[in-house]
Amino acid sequence: MKLNTKQLNKKLFLFIGIGVAFIALIGAASLITSLLKGKNMSYSNIELEMTNAAKEYYKKHKSALPIDNGSSVTIDSKDLINNGYLNSFDKLRKNAQCSGEVTVTKNDEFYYYAPSLDCGKDYQTVLLVDKITAEKNVVTEGDGLYYMSNNYIFRGEKVNNYVKFANHLWYILRVKDDNSIRLLFADKLEKVVWDNRYNIDRKSTVGINTFEVSRIRDSLHDYYNNPDFFTDSDKAKMLPQTLCIGKRDLNETINDGSIECSEVTEEENIGLLQVNEYQIISLDTNCATGTQAQCKNYNYLAKLSQSSWSITTDANTSYKAFKLSGSMFLSNASSSATPRFVVELNGGIRYTSGDGSKEKPYVIS
Description:
Layout: H1 5-39, H2 43-60, E1 72-76, H3 77-82, H4 89-92, E2 99-107, E3 110-118, H5 128-132, E4 144-148, E5 151-155, E6 162-165, E7 168-175, E8 181-185, E9 192-193, H6 215-224, H7 232-237, E10 241-244, E11 264-268, E12 271-272, H8 275-281, E13 308-313, E14 320-325, E15 327-332, E16 336-337, E17 341-345, E18 351-353, E19 362-364
Parallel strand pairs: 6-19
Antiparallel strand pairs: 1-2, 2-3, 4-5, 5-7, 6-7, 7-8, 8-17, 9-16, 10-11, 12-17, 13-14, 14-15, 18-19
């Protein structure tokens, strides 16, 4: 049967109506799902919402961002909510009674946003610092975490001090008194010279053991500036360091860092292990100078598979630096070892999972 124009128009309008109704139904379902999702938002997603809200806030208030390297500012969740950057917590999660803040820390041109959420007995943000330094983890004898001179230091041979950062494994050396977390690279690296410049004292290219003009410093900068190794997100989590570059006598017994820190260079992003840091890890009471063979006893760094440069050099020559390969010893700066670097992480970094073992390293966000 042939349809006339009026009948065709009726059918066309009917199909259009059905289509509009279907789209509206999908939209309504999507809205309901969105609202329900918001009402059941996980606490980790709420922390993400806080972070994103703070980023939006500081996009419009750039002058309020921290100015100096390593400095921080904090914005309260109430300010984010009152200014329309963040939904109230009870809209994000049903019946949520929470408070919070976001701390922003500057590292070079990067900013790390650290949310802190407090929902009473229901949930509280867990920081990596708090996970590491929990009272149950602190020991006074045997392998483990020691509280010494306002620092928490991992000592001994069998310790759970692994963390995943920048897509690599790292050792947690210590938590410092400002809550920054000092890490040592645990994976493999290509070997480099400490320095291979011409040394006028030796009349040979055996190197010059002054860190600030060294090849090893150049190598560290190259690693930091390699986006395949450290992403912008990784750099934001790091803090600028004051590197202790004081020279040390082979027979020096002081291990508190005062020798190494008698000379410093500031505003560096990555450094190297100090001799005293290796020395203090050993639980052998006969480890007196850091270069004695017994210092590798009960010392997790003695098992490193690659020889590694320290940042510390010889006080009695112009061309030797301390190298770690099982034990610590002096070597010509022109020889090769890995630049097993040290970084320091922001104390506001959140703990996600893991127990610090090599099989289950701490995971952060």
